[in-house]
Amino acid sequence: MTRRQTVPASRPKPNGFSLVELMVVLFVIALMAGAAVLAMPSGAGDLRREAEKFAARTIAARNEAISTSASVSAVVGPAGYYFERRVDGRWTPLDGKSLTATDWDKDTRAAIAGQGDNAPANRRVIFDPLGLASEDLRVTLSHDGNAMVVIVRRNGEVAVSGT
């Protein structure tokens, strides 16, 4: 008896990609898009950093007043802020990188509470050698519909909060 050999039928080669391969590619694209969205800067995060930077510098100015036993002021306005020390009856700019004049970031608006139509553009808060502020100050920073508030209290406390 002769045995017949069977030759497997040749299958046509598939053209294109399998469903599993397409799903893997879509997963990788979605993963990369998610990472890109998380890496994009947000207006709220930038505004929070700016408010915290202003608050930290104001605290540094208060600490400068305490450590040098001299009055130190924070001058805040719609364009930015700077710090000065009272020397020989005059206000002189503070030296040092962190306490130099700083402008608000582009498109950031600063509203200073208590500023009416007749109020000066800039508002000065003076820290005495005990670290106490001459008056309360409330600065509202806004950008792209987000807002952060920096509050300086008469007891020298500086706080940041979102609205």
Automatic annotation (TrEMBL):
It comes from the Bacteria. GO terms for biological process: protein secretion by the type II secretion system. Gene3D superfamilies: minor pseudopilin epsh domain. SUPFAM superfamilies: Pili subunits. The chain crosses the membrane at residues 20-40. InterPro entries: N_methyl_site, Pilin-like, T2SS_GspH. It is a single-pass membrane protein. One of its GO terms (cellular component) is plasma membrane. It is found in: Cell inner membrane. Keywords: Cell inner membrane, Cell membrane, Membrane, Methylation, Transmembrane, Transmembrane helix. Residues 50-156 form the General secretion pathway GspH domain. Belongs to the GSP H family. This is Type II secretion system protein H. It comes from Croceicoccus pelagius. The lineage of its organism: Bacteria, Pseudomonadati, Pseudomonadota, Alphaproteobacteria, Sphingomonadales.
